[in-house]
């Protein structure tokens, strides 16, 4: 079967065969894009007058290769790539084209990511350290279906927002809970799932002392364990029903079972103290 590097080379060299003549002056460009927990290969068709276009779509070839592996029809996959390029070049909804970030302070949200898996990304963007995790910031650009589109706040976006990192964090703390309220579900006696109503980036709810204290009240304890099951949700467990070493084994199995590594948050179990709001590492499966 064709390997990924050959697929990428063919997609780059043949894509214009599947595009209408108006794209004859466009040049295919491959870019390595750094995202949370991963890097991806993006194919872009760049026009000679790129500045006059509102938007140029990126097609992630890693994802399209997975489609090819399922269908084994290269021409169909190249046609699908061409369709994305044709449908989205120069067009996005109005709320995604207005890039005046100074007007978007009420759209700033945050999400927790793994520090170790994102060291290169974290070097380039404003962030706040939290134990062996990091808080990064996003600006919501628009909503679609059951999700939303966002851009990660980098130094350029931060400058356009006109905020310090401290102010950025304060905005994100206000907005995240307002836009995506917490959701606490009982899993078992002494165990709860914490996420938000959207189910996206819900692990950030652990940053809210009032939310975590409410879980502590439900458990009847002001200290409990935090299992970072993904960037989208946490499992909060009473110290009476489990110990860190059994939980870290469960976490290792869960992370191994996650099909998309970009959803992994941490390899550590934490103990949360409701009084101080501090979250301390008590076990890591790399040390188990």
Brief digest:
It is built from 9 helices and 13 strands.
pLDDT averaged over residues: 89
Overall body shape: globular
Give the SSE string: HEEEHHHEHEEEHHEEHEEHEE
Oligomer: single chain
| Portion in helices | 25-40%
Distance between the termini: 39 Å
Radius of gyration, rounded?
22 Å
> Helix segment count?
9
| Sheet with the most strands: spatial strand order | 8-9-11-10-12-13
- Major beta sheet, specifics? 6 strands, antiparallel
The chain-level structural class is: alpha+beta
Key terms:
9 helices, 6-stranded antiparallel β-sheet, globular, alpha+beta
Description:
- The structure is a single chain.
- This protein has helices at 4-14, 61-71, 74-88, 94-97, 119-122, 155-161, 165-179, 209-219, 244-257; strands spanning 27-35, 38-46, 59-60, 108-114, 128-130, 133-144, 147-152, 182-188, 191-196, 223-227, 234-238, 268-273, 278-284.
- It is built from nine helices and 13 strands.
- The strands form three sheets. Strands 8-9-11-10-12-13 form a six-stranded antiparallel sheet.
- Helix content is 32%, strand content 29%.
- By secondary structure, the chain is of the alpha+beta class.
- Helix 2 (61-71) runs antiparallel to helix 3 (74-88).
């Amino acid at each position: 079967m064709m390997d990924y590097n050959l697929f990428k080379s063919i997609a780059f060299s043949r894509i214009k065969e599947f595009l209408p003549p108006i794209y004859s002056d466009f040049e295919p460009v491959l870019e390595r894009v750094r995202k949370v927990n991963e890097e991806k290969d993006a194919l872009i068709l760049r026009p000679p007058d790129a500045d006059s276009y509102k938007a140029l779509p990126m097609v992630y070839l890693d994802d399209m290769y997975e489609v090819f592996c399922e269908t084994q029809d290269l021409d169909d996959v190249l046609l699908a790539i061409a369709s994305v390029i044709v449908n989205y070049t120069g067009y996005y909804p109005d709320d995604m084209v207005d890039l005046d970030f100074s007007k978007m302070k009420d759209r700033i949200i945050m999400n927790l990511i793994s520090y170790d898996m994102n060291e290169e990304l974290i070097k380039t963007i404003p962030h706040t350290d939290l134990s062996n995790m990091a808080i990064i910031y996003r600006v919501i650009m628009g909503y679609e279906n059951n999700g939303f589109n966002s851009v990660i706040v980098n130094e350029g976006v931060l400058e356009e927002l006109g905020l310090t990192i401290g102010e950025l964090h304060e905005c994100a703390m206000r907005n995240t809970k307002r836009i995506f309220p917490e959701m606490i579900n009982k899993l078992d006696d002494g165990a709860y799932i914490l996420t938000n109503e959207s189910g996206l980036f819900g692990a950030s709810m652990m940053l809210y002392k009032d939310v975590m204290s409410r879980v502590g009240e439900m458990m009847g304890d002001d200290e409990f364990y935090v299992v970072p099951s993904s960037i989208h949700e946490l499992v909060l467990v009473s110290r009476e029903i489990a110990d860190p070493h059994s939980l870290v084994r469960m976490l290792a199995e869960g992370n191994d079972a996650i099909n998309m590594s970009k959803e992994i948050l941490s390899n550590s179990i934490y103990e949360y103290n409701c009084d101080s709001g501090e979250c301390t590492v008590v076990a890591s499966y790399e040390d188990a």
